[in-house]
Amino acid sequence: MQDPIIRKNVKSLSSNEKQHFIDAVKALKTNTKESRIADNKYDDYVLWHAQTMMIPAGSDADANMRNLAHRGPIFLPWHREFLRRFELDLQKEVADVAMPYWDWAADASLRSPDDETPAWTLSPIWTEDFMGENGDPNNDNIVGNGPFKDWITQEVDDHGHPSLKDHLRRDFGNLIRTLPTQIDVYNAFSFDFFDTAYWDVFSKGFSNAIEGWLNGPQLHNRVHVWVGGSMLLNTSPNDPVFFVNHCNEDRIWALWQDLRFNFGYPADGTIRDRNGKKIDHYNINDKIYPWQDEPESKTIGDMLDYRKLGIRYK
Amino acid sequence: MKSRNYRNKEIKYSMPEDPNYVGKIDLEIEHNHVHALRLLDGTYATHFLPYLHYDSIEELTNEVIDKVPFYRS
Lengths: 314, 73
Known about the structure:
Number of helices of chain B: 2
Distance between the termini of chain A: 20 Å
Low-confidence stretches of chain B: none
CATH class of chain B: Alpha Beta
Strand order of the largest sheet of chain A: 1-6
Oligomer: heterodimer
Strand content of chain B: 25-35%
Helix content of chain A: 25-40%
Number of domains of chain A: 1
Structural class of chain B: alpha+beta
Mean pLDDT of chain B: 96
Radius of gyration of chain A: 19 Å
Number of strands of chain A: 6
Strand order of the largest sheet of chain B: 1-2-4-5
Largest sheet of chain A: 2 strands, parallel
Order of helices and strands of chain A: EHHHHEEEEHHHHE
CATH architecture of chain A: Orthogonal Bundle
Strand content of chain A: 5-15%
Largest sheet of chain B: 4 strands, antiparallel
CATH architecture of chain B: 2-Layer Sandwich
Radius of gyration of chain B: 11 Å
Mean pLDDT of chain A: 96
Low-confidence stretches of chain A: none
CATH class of chain A: Mainly Alpha
């Protein structure tokens, strides 16, 4: 059996580990020979995310905007597979690289040393050698420093087709002032069940709490909104911080699974909408879209045990 | 269709008058269709800005023009 992948907190990465991660991400962006649906392998992930988000899930989706990756119990398993694939692609570029996670709740407790210095400057994420800093408010919030300075984004039209290219933008704390806190994470852990009917943004449960629709925007959604800029959009994987954010949500799910002895999903694995119809691609033995026709495609059930996927969090 | 301008862009939209209406909204910015829904709780959403709900269709439309590259340009 292969050694498990050890995913570490960004703050505990060595300089070399940070550099290897950045090198691998940038290598995907310049890999134009093996891309599947975009101009390069990195942008494949941008388009997969945006396009999957545009596909309604269930006959009641016009009332809740449930889709094949979000706004329902598929959210955590779909992103676990998305991250797993991304990590495998990173490793093809730089051997042994692993996804790090951003413990944003720790950043929520950072305090500014003075009135002039924003608290985020103390974070291990927003540094010249990792994610770079905030966007420049005098230049349309375009990120102007760090490894992703001059990073070109892939945007989409109303059909999810690639449209124009743009710049990476960030606008920290503009739409919402604070990141989610550790107390917010504990509150999500108070749910001992994963999700409930009708399996959408209005249902109670751990999954929806982590995605952030309960009294939202909270947790995952709140991080996207706090970073702002490119992270607000359906093309949010354009910002590499997307992946370290989702790695943290996956870590929190893994912790919950361990504490609750609960892999999530209802006992019979069937998800039905408000009209009593099974939701395609949502049931435990359904293949995960859009990779369902690939030889190595995975089901939702395959995603529930992170240890079987060879993932460990440190 | 109702019509207005924001940042020199023409917005047109129509939806049923029923205050309890839930479903698709016919929305265009500069003649380009924009995905928009009115949800069960009375808020508005679009898959272009998927992490937030909006209290009105006007607020949603303004945010699309301010934030979404395809409609900003």
